[in-house]
Amino acid sequence: MLIVRRERPDDVLTVRAIQSAAFGRDGLEPMEARLLDALRADDGWLDRFSLVAELDGVVVGHNICTRAHVDGVPVLGLGPIGVRPDVQRAGVGVAMVHTMLGAADAADEPLVALLGSTDYYGRFGFVPSVDVGIVPPEPSWGPHFQVRTLAAHRPTITGTFVYAAPFTDVT
C-alpha cells in the first residue's frame, strides 16, 4: 500500500539517501542532496510541506515545497522531488505531487512553481509560468519553468519568481 504523509524527524537520513539515490551519478553526491540540506537550514523551509511516500511501510520517496515569492507575494517552490530508483515509474511521484498540491491548496497557498518536464507536469495542471504573468528566475528555462495556480490564486500575482535562497546558493 502506498501512502503519502508528512516527514517525521526520524525520516531525515532516509530522505537524504533517497534524494542521493534518485539523482546521484557516477558515485558523486548530487546537488539535490546538498540543496535539501541547505533548505532545512533556511527560513524558507516549511515543515508541513515536506512529504514522504511510504510503500508497504518503507519510505521510498520525498518531495518538498519551500517558501518562494513573486514580487514579494508568498508562494511555493516545489522540489527537489526524489523517488528511490527501484520504485520509479510505479506511481510514487504522481501520488506525491497530487498530495502536495492538495496540501498547498488546503493551506490557502496561491500557487506552486517548479522547473521540470512540461509533458510530465502538465498532467497536474502546471502551465508555463509566463502564461500567468510570472517571469522565471532564469529566462533560459523558458516553458520548463511552470506554475500550478490554486484556489487562493489572484490574477494580480505577477512578476519575477524568486526561490528560497539555497536554490541560488547551492551548485
What does this 3D model show about the protein?
By secondary structure, this protein is an alpha+beta fold. It has helices spanning 12-23, 31-40, 92-106, 118-122, 166-169; strands spanning 2-6, 50-55, 58-70, 73-83, 111-115, 127-128, 134-135, 145-149, 159-162. The chain has one domain (2-169): 3-Layer(aba) Sandwich (Aminopeptidase), CATH 3.40.630. Strands 1, 2, 3, 4, 5, 6, 7, 8 and 9 form a nine-stranded mixed sheet that branches. It contains five helices and nine strands. The mean pLDDT is 96.
Structure keywords:
alpha+beta; Aminopeptidase; 171 residues
- Structural class label: alpha+beta
Shape: globular
Please name the fourth-level CATH homologous superfamily: Gcn5-related N-acetyltransferase (GNAT)
- Between the first and last Cα atoms, what is the distance in angstroms? 36 Å
Q: Any idea of the CATH topology?
A: Aminopeptidase
| CATH architecture descriptor | 3-Layer(aba) Sandwich
Q: Strand portion, in percent?
A: 25-35%
The number of helical runs is 5
What is the CATH C-level name?
Answer: Alpha Beta
* Rg (CA only): 15 Å
The total count of strands amounts to 9
Count of domain modules: 1
Major β-sheet profile: 9 strands, mixed
The helical percent reads 25-40%
Secondary-structure element pattern, one letter each: EHHEEEHEHEEEEH
Mean pLDDT: 96
Ranges where pLDDT stays below 50 over 5 or more residues in a row are none
